Amino acid sequence: MKSFSEKIFKIGINPYILLPENILIFLFKEAAKDKGPIPIRGTMNGQPFVQTLVKYSGHWRLYLNTPMRKAAKADVGDTPIFKIEFYQEKRIIQVHPKLKSSFEKNKSAKKIFDTLPPSRQKEIIRYISNLKTEESVNRNIEKAIKFLLGKERFVGRDAP
Fold first, then answer.
1. pLDDT of residue 91
2. At what angle do helices 118-129 and 134-148 cross, to 10 degrees?
3. What crossing angle do the helices spanning 118-129 and 97-105 adopt, rounded to 10°?
4. Which residue spans of the chain are classified as CATH 2.40.30.100?
5. What is the dotted CATH code of the domain comprising 2-86?
6. Can you tell me the mean pLDDT for 11-16?
7. C-alpha distances in Å from residue 20, one per residue of 61, 143, 145
8. Which one of 27, 41, 90, 91 has the lowest number of neighbouring Cβ atoms within 10 Å?
9. Mean pLDDT across the stretch 46-73?
């Protein structure tokens, strides 16, 4: 793991840091690539996280979601201490059983879901899987099915 400190910036609504050149070189070497998303793991102010390093607008950025920042007690303008490394393990998010059941009942929605890019599929699966209450899960699965069938927006996106 490599250690460094960086100031947290914000682009739009997204807090992020830019990684120092020596850290990028280390990660590129570990990942054996310098293109495409690079999975990493580490700590921010001692709090563990798993995230993906992405290149956007010519800069490699590490986006810092709300749970990461809250756990580390760090926000935009702060300069937390990071330790990071390349993360080789596959990150598999299980499809929520109720979403799986809904796909079995609605073959048309499942067929459309299967045509979506993997990143969009993962976005839907992750969103449903991270909901806290059964009520939210049920309501959002219904919205996701309607989204896939072209009847409703979902997670801020127009229907496919």
1. 64
2. 160
3. 120
4. 2-86
5. 2.40.30.100
6. 93
7. 10, 41, 42
8. 90
9. 94
